């Protein structure tokens, strides 16, 4: 009997930013130009990450408005992907709304989130700088990268694998006995005291607590 852990990922973002293209790129390694819109799709796929298989469910939410937020979908998610197009400033503003919604619906619980600036191949049409994306991700304590579903799959894959790893790690930590958890915190405190909290140059790995807005 198979006993795969399941990971539920919700993908949010404006229309036309490439949500479906990114998901299909991750699941099939292919890029298909056009997709039927106006429907929410649920993809189920067995994904092997670090030699461990998981059943990954990816919900592509294509329609939602301020009057009809995907509350149940976000609340039941283990991880979220928020996508904007680097060629569409409005979609970047919408991405900020999405991060806000996730933060409101999930707090104080921690949920792994990645912010993706898609369509990196369309550099000439860029309206959102890398720095803007990075700053927004810092503000909300999530990972960030710019990708191109059309261009290649490496960045897209890495974003999803990173989420799967984070979900596994946080589940593992929740399952540890309390005594063990306490000793892990003690070790990290000792390390913090020895090296200082800000000793790492790359703070992105440590982002977990979104700031209050
Ligand atoms: N150049 C370029 N085009 C892309 C990329 N990703 C998606 N597209 C195109 O952008 C358009 C929208 O892609 P979709 O994947 O349907 O976007 P979506 O966000 O799922 O759209 P909705 O379902 O309407 O919400 C399509 O014409 C894609 O071919 C990319 O990385 N580069």
Automatic annotation (TrEMBL):
Q: Does the keyword Hydrolase apply?
A: yes
Alphabetical list of Pfam families matching this protein: Ras (PF00071)
Q: Which SMART domains match?
A: RAB, RAS
Q: Which reaction does it catalyse?
A: GTP + H2O = GDP + phosphate + H(+)
Enzyme group, top EC level? hydrolase
Q: Which UniProt keywords apply?
A: Hydrolase
EC number(s) reported in the record: 3.6.5.2
SUPFAM superfamilies with a match to the protein in the record: P-loop containing nucleoside triphosphate hydrolases (SSF52540)
Q: Does the keyword Coiled coil apply?
A: no
Name the family: Belongs to the small GTPase superfamily. Ras family.
Q: What is this protein called?
A: small monomeric GTPase
The encoding gene is LOC106459413
